[in-house]
Amino acid sequence: RRLFFDTHALVCLLEENGFTTQQSEVIVSALVKIMNTNLDMIYKDMVTKVQQEISLQQVMSHIAGVKKDMIILEKSEFSALRSENEKIKLELQQIKKQVVDEITKVRADNKLNLNLEKSRVKELHAQQDRALTQTDRKIDTEVADLKTMLESHKLDNIKYLAGSVFTCLTVALGFYRLWI
């Protein structure tokens, strides 16, 4: 076996650091044994190239057998699948025809319902427009009445304010005359 480090250099290094030659050699010897044991365990789990090729050939022969079985099954069931496929195609065509007929009926019904709803909506819009116009007129009338009331209240407030100012002025002048 090859070792991937220099054992003599390790012995010299240990001796330089205070170990005796015999101690250094025993330590290096123990390390070599440990490494060899570890490598033996690793090699036990490994396969050789020959063993790998044999296993590969066995797997390939199993795959070839499965392929042959699949071809036989495919040929025997292919005709059964073909006839079943034809039946399904016929059923699908019948169902497609029924669906097309139903869709045509639904479209006609929807068009009729849509036209009825359009006329109802137009009538409703016309009623809403009339009601809106009447509401606008009522609002305009009420706004005009409120403006008139506001103007009359303004004039009343101005009269009361002027009267109050003149009254206060008269009272102030009266007090002024009394004091003088």
From TrEMBL:
PANTHER family: MITOCHONDRIAL CALCIUM UNIPORTER REGULATOR 1 (PTHR14360:SF11), PROTEIN FMP32, MITOCHONDRIAL (PTHR14360). The lineage of its organism: Eukaryota, Metazoa, Chordata, Craniata, Vertebrata. GO terms for cellular component: mitochondrial inner membrane. It is found in: Mitochondrion membrane. Belongs to the CCDC90 family. It comes from the Eukaryota. Keywords: Coiled coil, Membrane, Mitochondrion, Transmembrane, Transmembrane helix. Its main location: mitochondrion. GO terms for biological process: calcium import into the mitochondrion; positive regulation of mitochondrial calcium ion concentration. InterPro entries: CCDC90-like (IPR024461). The chain crosses the membrane at residues 160-179. This is Mitochondrial calcium uniporter regulator 1.
